[in-house]
Design a protein that fits this description.
It contains 13 helices and twelve strands. It is globular and about 65 Å long. Strand 2 and strand 3 form a beta hairpin. The protein has two domains: 143 residues, 3-Layer(aba) Sandwich (Rossmann fold), CATH 3.40.50.300; 135 residues, Helicase, Ruva Protein, domain 3 (Orthogonal Bundle), CATH 1.10.8.60. The chain is an alpha/beta fold.
Amino acid sequence: MQPLMVQPERWMLGGMVGRSPVMQHLFQRMRCTAPHFRLVNIEGEQGTGKLLAAQTLHHIGAAASGPFVPTIATEFIEAPHSLWQEAGGGLLYLARVDELSADQQRQLRDYLERAAHERMRATKSSAPLQIVAGSTQSLRRLAGSGAFRGDLASHLTAVRFGIPTLRDRKDDIPVLAGLFLRNWSREHHNPLRGFAAGVLPRLASYAWPGNVRELESVIAAAALECSGQWIRPIDIPRLHWPAPSGTAPVIVDPFADDPNLDRAILRHITRILAQANGNKVRAAKMLGISRSTLYRLLDDQHPADPAAE
């Protein structure tokens, strides 16, 4: 049996957790940079925790006493002045900047340049103290291929953090899984003790295309399935396990004969969310339902993930 990690705080920075060397190195860089940066880029696959990293930089940085304003970059282009003022004295997080069109990239570059000039002239500025630009793809690589403005990429990536994938930090899976299970137990007043033999090796063998967000969804689904105090291998939702080279993926579904409709709905939603990399809008389209219906089903079945947007 593997008990819950009772002291994950020793490996935490803000809301981020990781004991692996790559995460500890990232934490050290963030601590050194947070009090001083003006503009920083956070790169990472969907589900790696870019929003959480931006929140952490806000928490430990120069803008901690001001607001934290997250928005999608395309939405900022539509209403830059109001969002800029809302984030005044705080941190503005622009997500998905790599999805901006060529014209939107030009608008963002022009606005950042104009705002910088106004800030230099003004004795009292309502601008954000710090700006974080989140991207799934490397802006420098996109600029090199001509898919992103080189001048904007250079400006946004002068300081850059790369959030590693979960498959590149598998040492953190026991800590993360324990933390997610502990949080779930507290929220649901259901004191689960930890993981039975075979669970953590099974989790470590999976590629986690949805990264940390997918792991959290899987732990929540397993906790709902658990009928005792320990999460068992049979409680883990259906996952696509790695297969030997040249063969088809191995699909393990320990619940194939489970007649319970609620659990079947939850497992199906969890799988689709993983395929959509946690994007609920995309998952709703794949499921053929409205986003409000998906939110209702998630609220009915398991606690919502505040960082899943």
